[in-house]
């Protein structure tokens, strides 16, 4: 009976979840395993933790039309969803907002910094030709001591000078470190970056707070050879 139950158990699904009303959140991959999550509410509790939601997640919606997901069985493997509390679904272009504002001139800061959501082709910062054409370069940033969260993209404009304090403020907002504000940016070997001129497009870095840098296998564990983002497709 036990082996039969395992055979009939539905396979795990991989989905990416965005925060409702946050166009800059890069999305988090969440595994839907019905052996682990016996109820939809249990899965929503896991989503709350995964995306660091300020309030408990109680609803999931499709990103384009805001169709509400009612149960675990409605989730489709390789799809994307928007997590919300009890508030209404906020209609934003979650899937391509980052590209529209990639290197725009409306930023009130003197430095153009975008560390938010990018289309799937930009997530790995490998599309260097397209980035160069847009006058930008991209780095990927891990969170110090965090081997569960994938790196987030950091886009910088080549056309304006980089203000380091503005960059650290942006990193603080996007990294959401448990220790608080990001005070320094380090290379994977732990050496500290002291200025924007030292950043190299396509490289990986670690955002660090007041604590010491933790030398861990970030790249080996969090950057798969074939990124899952490349296989995701849109849900209508």
UniProtKB/TrEMBL annotation:
Domain of life per record: Eukaryota
Any one of the GO BP annotations: intracellular signal transduction
InterPro entries (alphabetical): Doublecortin_dom, Doublecortin_dom_sf
Annotated TM spans: none
Keywords linked to the UniProt accession: Repeat
Keyword Transcription regulation (UniProt): no
GO cellular component, one term: microtubule organizing center
Span of domain Doublecortin: 13-95, 141-219
Protein's name in the database: DCD2B protein
Organism listed in the record: Anhinga rufa (African darter)
